[in-house]
């Protein structure tokens, strides 16, 4: 049964399967309980064999876990996706212009489109980067925008991830896993492919290279194996055919970045960095950081290396900026029709679900808010849409969201679908894997009539 009051992705109010879910429902109904359990065991074995994991911080029973995957795919009709895609392109374009403005003329602040104190007081705003503009004036090379659906079925933006968005490796592996375990699902659906994402990502990173680089060298900078997204870092490096490095593998000389190799030093032109701003260069930001590269920001200022995403892009992540997105889109793009509506810490940490919290929990949280009120915002609780999910031997509705991945290179491109995250615990609104959530394969239909 769907979650109470939630918009059901697969069934209408009468309990009838929506048109684009009917073939899938029919296939699932044809399976015996034993067959479904056999397939689910095969699925778990496949995930274990491939080492598809994530890391949970602060857990005594171990940090590395298999990423939970539910085999009932989410299906998005073509026309529905086209509207979503247009909104994402619009939004990312405006976000990049906003960041570019913040680190140059700050016209949006002078014109009071957004109060200056909201932007300039944030830790994600880096004064060290004023007038430091990345190659091609692109800050937001890879963006993961989290989208939810309210009780009326309307899509709303929950938040943008403009720094180091993760999860795309699970998007690709979910598709591979489902293809192996439930191949018959794909016989009745024209599902748009996603396998070319690594190629598109590499193209985007190459576009970020300094113009004088004829054959740019790209690397992925990881904090190391202890990072929650290390599986993704190594996965993307392998799929793109680039080197995965840690800070100790890179060195700055004569305002260029070099990678240590067995054949000697090799110049690096683009760094897809999965290290937060504060840790990327101990000479500019946190001096105690052992994850970054001393002197890297000097090379970046000189225009001798491209960094994706560009340092400072996190200023657009700040949740206090979200309320101003409609005005910012109109300000930078001159567009009045906003295709997607705008509605703590990442990963579900540092968040309080007010309507369900205990009194003591609320009191403790409020004490934290009073100490530093500028670090918190309040959002109304939206009834996330529900989707059929296989749990404890039966199909039940569970709340979901969607993180599409947008690439900003020579043009803005959106991977069809994205990461559908699902709250596996009954009644839960928290879909993050670190808080007990899982994921689904997300299908965008190629058929224009769908």
Question: Helices and strands in order, then pairings?
Answer:
Layout (H helix, E strand, L loop, with lengths): L21 H9 L2 H18 L2 E3 L8 E3 L2 E8 L1 H25 L4 H4 L5 H5 L21 E8 L5 E7 L6 H14 L15 H11 L10 E4 L8 H11 L2 E3 L4 E4 L2 E6 L2 E5 L1 E4 L22 H6 L4 E3 L16 H9 L7 E2 L16 H13 L14 E6 L2 E10 L1 E4 L3 E3 L4 E5 L13 E8 L6
Parallel strand pairs: 3-19, 5-13, 6-7, 6-11, 11-12
Antiparallel strand pairs: 1-2, 4-5, 4-16, 8-9, 9-10, 14-15, 15-18, 16-17, 18-19
Helix pairs in contact: 2-6, 3-10
* Main sheet: strand order: 3-19-18-15-14
Name the poorly predicted regions: 344-356
By DSSP, the count of extended strands is: 19
Largest sheet: 5 strands, mixed
Span of the ends, CA to CA: 25 Å
What's the order of the H and E elements?
HHEEEHHHEEHHEHEEEEEHEHEHEEEEEE
Helix content: 25-40%
Secondary structure category: alpha/beta
Summed up, the helix count is 11
Beta-strand percentage range: 15-25%
Rounded to an integer in angstroms, the radius of gyration calculated over CA atoms is 22 Å
- Average pLDDT, all residues: 88
Overall form: globular
| Overall number of structural domains | 2
Give an overview of the whole structure:
By secondary structure, the chain is α/β, with parallel strands linked by helices. It has 2 domains: 2-210 and 305-372 and 380-444, no CATH class; 211-304, 3-Layer(aba) Sandwich (Rossmann fold), CATH 3.40.50. It has helices spanning 22-30, 33-50, 78-102, 107-110, 116-120, 168-181, 197-207, 230-240, 296-301, 325-333, 359-371, and strands at 53-55, 64-66, 69-76, 142-149, 155-161, 218-221, 243-245, 250-253, 256-261, 264-268, 270-273, 306-308, 341-342, 386-391, 394-403, 405-408, 412-414, 419-423, 437-444. Strands 3-19-18-15-14 form a 5-stranded mixed sheet. The protein has a 5-stranded mixed sheet with strand order 13-5-4-16-17. A 4-stranded parallel sheet has the order 7-6-11-12, covered by helices on one side. Strand 6 (218-221), helix 8 and strand 7 (243-245) form a beta-alpha-beta unit. Helix 3 packs across helix 10 (325-333). It is globular and about 65 Å long. Residues 344-356 have low confidence and may be disordered.
């Amino acid at each position: 049964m769907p979650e109470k009051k939630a918009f059901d992705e697969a069934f209408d109010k009468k309990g009838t399967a929506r048109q684009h879910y009917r073939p899938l429902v029919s296939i699932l109904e044809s399976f015996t309980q034993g067959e479904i359990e056999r397939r689910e065991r095969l699925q778990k074995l496949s995930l274990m064999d491939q080492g598809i994991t994530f890391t949970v911080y602060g857990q005594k029973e171990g940090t590395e876990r298999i990423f939970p995957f539910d085999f009932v795919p989410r299906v998005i009709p073509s026309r529905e996706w086209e509207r979503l895609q247009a909104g994402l392109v619009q939004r990312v374009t405006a976000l990049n212009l906003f960041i570019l403005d913040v680190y140059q003329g700050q016209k949006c602040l002078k014109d009071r489109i957004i109060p200056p104190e909201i932007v300039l007081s944030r830790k994600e705003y880096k004064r060290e980067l004023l007038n430091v503009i990345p190659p091609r004036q692109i800050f937001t090379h890879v963006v993961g925008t989290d989208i939810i659906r309210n009780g009326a079925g309307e899509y709303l933006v929950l938040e943008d991830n403009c720094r180091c968005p993760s999860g795309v490796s699970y998007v690709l592996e979910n598709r591979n896993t489902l293809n192996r375990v439930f191949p018959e699902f794909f016989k009745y659906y024209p599902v748009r492919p996603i396998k070319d994402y690594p190629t598109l990502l590499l193209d985007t990173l190459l576009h970020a290279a300094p113009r004088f680089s004829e054959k740019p060298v790209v690397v992925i900078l990881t904090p190391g194996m202890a990072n929650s997204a290390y599986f993704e870092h190594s996965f993307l490096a392998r799929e793109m055919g680039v080197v995965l490095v840690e800070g100790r593998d890179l060195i700055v000389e004569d305002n260029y970045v070099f990678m240590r190799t067995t054949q000697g030093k090799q110049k690096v032109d683009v760094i897809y960095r999965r290290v937060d701003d504060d840790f990327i260069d101990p000479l500019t930001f946190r001096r105690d950081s052992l994850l970054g590269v001393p002197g890297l920001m000097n090379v970046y200022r000189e225009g001798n290396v491209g960094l994706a995403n560009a340092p400072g892009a996190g200023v657009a992540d700040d949740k206090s900026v979200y309320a101003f997105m409609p005005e910012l889109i109109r300000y930078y793009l001159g567009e009045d029709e906003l295709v997607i509506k705008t509605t703590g810490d990442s990963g579900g940490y540092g968040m309080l679900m007010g309507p369900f919290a205990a009194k003591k929990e609320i009191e403790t949280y409020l004490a934290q808010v009073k100490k530093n009120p500028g670090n918190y915002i309040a959002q109304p609780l939206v009834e996330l849409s529900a989707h059929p999910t296989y749990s404890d031997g039966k199909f039940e509705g569970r709340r979901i969201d969607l993180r599409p991945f947008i690439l900003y290179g020579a043009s803005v491109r959106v991977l069809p679908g994205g990461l559908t995250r699902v709250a596996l615990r009954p009644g839960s609104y928290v879909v993050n894997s670190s808080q007990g959530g899982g994921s689904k394969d997300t299908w965008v239909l190629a058929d224009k009539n769908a």
